[in-house]
Amino acid sequence: MAQLCTAVGKGHQRHIAWFLILRADWPARRAALVAWPQPATLDEHGRQSTRLPRA
Question: Looking at per-residue confidence, does 55 or 46 come out higher?
Answer without folding.
Answer: 46
